[in-house]
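Lab notebook page, bench 4
Experiment: in silico fold of construct C2
Operator: M.H.
Input chain length: 183 residues
Purpose: comparison with the prior construct
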Amino acid sequence: MYFAALLARTEDGWEASDTELDDVETLSDLAELAREASPEDDTVLVLIEQEDAWFGVVRIDGEDDPRIYVSDAAAASRSSYGEILLTAELLGRDPDADEPDLDALDLDGTEDGESDDDPDTASDDEEETGAPADAVPHGPVGDPVILDDLGVGEKELRALDADDALSAIAEALGASEVLETVR
């Protein structure tokens, strides 16, 4: 089960709104949705969780680029909402690199009749790390100090458990009551 909410900081404190992500296909779409929640260019946090698996925080400050933190990239990569957050840049990949040509891929795991057990056929990236170059890391990715100035430091953010992280973040922000009204 997924939950997503917007927390917009205003002069009067935090305002929460439940948000539907079905029409959001890209990080740009998500950022635009967040900016619409705060006409004054105040800070807006998009909080997303998949129960017991992962959580993500996207921070939008006015027209600045979104800042992102995802608690478990591998778990999020298996989620349509998680894929929105896991940009090439966030994963440390070259965003301008061309995607591989599917017709040129060796889909049976062998090349020119060689066995896929042959150590000489491993890619350079696999030899260095033991994993394919496009593997998504297990564990957190993104900006670990995304909430530092709001009272949730890097150590606290990394220590949060996926099933209660959003409540803990909202409590630290003084926004737990408004978050619970949209939950």
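Observations: The CA atoms of residues 74 and 138 lie 5 Å apart. Residues 101-105, 122-129 have pLDDT under 50 and may be disordered.
Next step: discuss at group meeting.
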